[in-house]
Fold these 2 entries.
Entry 1:
Amino acid sequence: MFEKKFLAPLKIGAFFCLIFLSGCSSVSPWERGTLAKAHMNLQPSPLQSSLRSHQYGSREAASGGGEAAGGGCGCY
Amino acid sequence: MAVTKSKALHLLTVAALALPLTTVFASDEDAYFQYGHYEDGERNLFTTKSAFKPIEVDSLQSGARLKLSDRVRLAFNYTQDTWSGATPITTALLAFNPNHESTTRAKTISGASPYLQPSNLYVDKQFNPLQLDAKTQKYSANNQLVHTLSTASPETRKQGGIGIGYDWDEASLDAGAGTSVEPDYQSVFGNVGLRLDFNQKLTSVNLGASYTASETNSMLDHDASPYIETSTFGTRVQTLKNGVKLVTGSKDDWTGSLGLTQVLNKSALIEGSVSYTASNGYMSNPYKVVEILFVDPTKKADSEGKIDAKLLPFLEQRPEQRNQWTENLRFVQHIAALDAALHLDYRFYHDDWGINAHTISSDWIQPIGDGWSLTPRVRYYSQNAADFYTPYLLSKQAASTIKFDDNGNITRTSYNPKLFPQNYSSDYRLSGYGALSGGLTVTKKFAKGLELQAGAEYYTHAGNLKLGGGGEGNYADFDGYLVNAALNVDLAALATANSAHSEHSHHAHHHHGTGAPAGVMFDHVLANAGDVMIGYRYMYANQAGQMQNGTNPVGDKTLLNQSCDPVLKQCFVTPQEMSMNMHMLDLMYAPTDWLTLMLMPQFMDMHMTMRDLNGAADLNMLTPLGAAVTHSRHEHTTGGVGDTGMYALFNILKFSNQQLNVSLGISAPTGDSAIQLRDTHQQDLGFIHYGMQLGSGTWDFKPAITYTANIDDWSFGAQLNGTKRLENQSKSGFALGDIFQATVWGSYSWMNWLATSVRGVYTLQGALNGSYNGIYHQIGAMDFPNSYGGRFVDVGFGVAASMPDGSLQGNRISFEWLQPVHDDVNGYQLPREGALSATWSYAF
């Protein structure tokens, strides 16, 4: 039970760390033109995403994406 | 040369480094508006039928983000959802016929109640439910499950939030708070977030924490509650004096999150985050019940092999504690050959209710030139069932036993709740299933920072889509779709574009500086071909106080005898308070310099409370009229999309300080004018009161003529406008009265950015024509077509501010309060208490 509860997140966390620590080349600030494009934003449509999250949240058990927000019930 | 190059490089580096990685792409200052609509498809009910309409949700979001200084950011947001329609109240056995289509009225059924507790139920020795075949009159086992649907009258949730942020060179701190209110659920929340940049902003760390406190106060359905067992719920369920059962509970959620964003190379970045939420308190859904099938093990099967069984519905019991973990991974890759961006998101969710869920989604954002982009999207979600999920429960005990003692006295013993599991829910959202969705979004970015977006997504939920199989049966499958339309205005980009613009040509923006009071529309046209103006209008109006007939206040006795049917003298209730909120988008575009086109979509919600008239006859609530009167003791609400206005504005006369504009418009009946109350007390309540409908239901002609003049710091205006219904009746059978309005105003500019105004308004509106063509119950004055319209005089006091310079240059906000001074109403109506108008507009 302990393993099921706590180890799975840890393993995934370790996986993230590996990704971050490996394969990152240094990108100079003036080389970030592509990264600065609107469609390269991690959250390109925040308004649409919030509507979708609300809809998924009222239809699925795994609500929220871990972002700290709050909100209503939506319990129809 | 080398020195220059290095200096330029240094300056570039400094400039680039000033941009935080995670927020650089989003504008710091914008205003936004979004409309969304979600609708469930029909559910598979097998051989049973329910004519309830599936649930639909209309959502409205608006907000703005502004900069108070270089480093201080401020954000406001507002969200409103209105929903109505049917969702499953429980999962039942098809053998017991759990849904039923009314024979008296094809459109809806009366009450979920009889179908939660059917009688004459039998199981076989293996506890399989037995179904009677109507033709052969024989019983056979049928284990098929099916949802029992229940429906709700329209309900609205409103949420408002505010946020403040501070930016350092390599860090930012954000804090926010808000509240969400709906009739049966309230919550308040607060959050903080910290971003730290490292490694020349190639790496960012995000820390977040939030707290939410929620309260449930939910009245159980009149029809269903007598059939729902609440005895095992202890003090969570109280019975009020009027017999209504109230479920109360509170909940606290604490969330902490940690995220890391990393630039991988010139064209890819990744973000990983983990979050943990601890929830404590009431987490059950008060509108979901679990059927418990009682079979007395001491009972023997009869000659046909049937054993008596009893079915009782219980409020679901979820655990009062939940620990949730989420791990997110987001990856963005630029595809140089197509200038596209590929977004891949994965989320793993895990909680101590036994649910593990995987979500994977992919968006491909493809710019196709001229500011357009297309985004196809797919998403897959899969979860396994919660430990306590069960479609229904089998309890091997008698639901109740009756014993006679030697003296013939009866002792009744009920089921023993200790033999039930501690927690149980048949909510399909806690079952094992998968969900697949796909959609397409179209975005158009205009020059000067205006962005329009429209998207659609189709969603399908199925037990057999669960990862690894073993999902819930196909009775729980459903589909739905979500559409959205959004408008985003980049205020910073607008200001830049505008200041560049005004350097080149002295574009006539001065008339926006004064302008008409907030409650006046159609007062100005755009000066040049290609000009665009976008705006947002909000209006609140309220009616309350002592009822009036004409100009005279009237008491309950008159209302009782006169305000409904003067012959039958049948009046039972009177309106106590009515309010309306209206949100309007104001989109103007000048295709030529003599014509301005205007589109005005509306979103509205209405509230109404009533009270019993003193001396009104007491009605049996199981009669249609009695049920309508009983239901009127609840607040009635409606909300959703209103009518859509389309206008053409012409400038017909123009002198240096004066102009005369004509507006010709059509209002399309996009608002619902056939809203009905849900059935209650097993009675069909039919149409809601006329004034609560969201639209006129008819195509309307709306002309206006406006004169404006400016003399030094003074400006004056006058307008005549009207609304002429182009049809005699809507599909519901009635038409609103025509409207004529005359208004005159004067305003004075105290400073180049601030003006105040005074206005007089005369309004004449006709009574309703025709009446509802379906079932409705006339219980008070508001249900009679002649109690609408009248002659009204108001005085308005307004204030307007326009930003002459700075980053918000060109923005104008205005407010106006309309104070009623004379009400001469048709029939019997509540007097008006006043109306507030607020507008924001931006022309460029």
Entry 2:
Amino acid sequence: MGLVGIERLKGILGDENVKTDLADLYVYGSDASVHEALPWVVVRPHTIEDVQNIMRYANPRLIPVVARGAGSGMSGQAVPSKGGIVMDLKRMNKILEINLEDTYVRVEPGVVDDDLNRALKSHNVFYPPTPASSRIATIGGEIANNASGVRSVKYGAVRDSILGMKVVMANGDLINLGAKTRVEATGYQLDRLMVGSEGTLGIIVEATLKFVPIPKYRCMGIAKFNKLEDAGNAISEIMSSGINLSMLELMDNVAIKAVNQAQNLGLPDVEAILMFEADGMVKEGVDIEVKKMMESCKKHKGFGIELSYDAKERTRIFSGRKKLFPALSQFKEYYSCTSLADDMAVPYSKMAETAQKIHEIAKRNNVIMTAYGHCGSGCMHTKILMDTRKKSQWEDAKRAVFEIYEYVRSIGGTTSAEHGIGISKAPAFKREKSDSLNLMRAVKKAFDPNNILNPGKLMDAPDDWVTATSLRYRLDEKDMK
Amino acid sequence: MEFKRLKEWKDKLHVCIRCGYCYEHCHIFKITNWESDTPRGKLILLYALLHEEIEPTDYMANKIFECFNCGRCDASCSAKVPVTDIFTDVRADFIDGGFDVKGTLSHINEDLCSKCGICVSICKYEARTLDKEQNKIIIDKVKCRSCGGCEAACPSGAAYIEEGYMVSEKELLEQVQCYLGGK
């Protein structure tokens, strides 16, 4: 893409919305994953027409286009592994309509999750998926990755909050998918196909989302377990007993130690902690859910149970979980917290076994791993802590990642619960979905015949994630010899 | 050019997980909306500079000096990277390297300055001194925190904050007028 191309893009968007300085390209070449690759140019559309014009320029010239929201993805979805145009959609950030009568909201893709919920709060309603990164995550990015968060156990993932959307196709055509109604049986559910497509099928330029009332009562609790297995059994029983919790989180001993070490929160040195929350419009209903929850915990040797309806107290109880990510980043000097094998989903009955297996695999491969996550939705989070300056540690991590995904697949789990596939998880994803990869490629070809939309991701990503792109970490030269 | 001070932060730059939480409240990002103006973006640039993958430029140096030192990035950092401390040290490296930067710094209009020294006495960061030999106000670009105190205190309107970031006296007044329905 030469100077003429850059001038054309400036003609479409204005000089101020096109960046070609190496400094800008460097920044837009990475996200929260371990990958990086330089784009050729960064552009910033403000309107649907801008997006259409960019696609009309790029498509016949076979220039890759990578849509980007907050760049908070952990698997390399926004990394332009084949170069091309990075399309930063953060300036398309208007809330277009809040329709209280028909209970939907229409937004542009660059609207930040927390900003949307701040706007909805005054109407006593909220958009529930809310991933941990909701402070910066954009709605477009959340849809493209089918994000979810701590309350997904009750309110579902992003796909459960989507009613419809507008999408700009690879050739610049604009299509309307879904509807504004709560139900729709009007042919193929193409809006659902866009969810989790990671920018490979089209550019989401508008979304219609449903919202729900903010519950009047919320009660949060914590239970401690001396055995991880007991916590696992409690999870299974809770989830199969019909209790409709709004949150159920697990922290294992490594996670507890990390939080205590970094934040001095004084959490008990036990094998596992469960944090739970029930919500509703009627207090008696919440009381019943919480009572059942406590009974299940006690039955499986849970102790030290604390409960509170008070907002401040709830924040205190949850602070250990909230501070886990920073705590892991400081767990060991020179160790980095990498998002590898970080969000598989497993059956409830296998949660405890999975946590134990993770520790076993980590030990065998000389890395540190923890197990925590939204166990109410079967999501098991991990992070691999390692000395990213050492080449040998990347080999260790590669083995650990492979072993974890092989195990997850063997017990009926799935590669990603909410962080998506991108580049890092593509090898495991391809093994898991081997019988449908050709069908996925056919779908991709139907949407994007020239393969310009975020190429080299999902089923088209390389089989070795370590060498798929440059790693964003630089190896220590001494270790490389 | 050698980044002596930056090298001391090598390990801290390495643990940044690039989550992006640092830019949630970043004023510079709110103004420009480009990721290269976020604390994360600047840390990525510094990482590349540290490993000599990109050459320092005026464009890059200016970015590092575009910061109001509010510290919100430090507070929200997932990996507890001391972002503003790193930026302060790298600014000194850039100044040592001979870069002439504007950033969000305070400046002085020599034609209007009466050398009264009020800006020197009110600057809590000791970024301003009165050079009696040269009879002029000297601004330490590393120490200046772009707080705007000098601009507010200067009786002759000689001290000013770089415009374009919506915090200069003129821009703030315009915003207030706009809010009150004046414009």
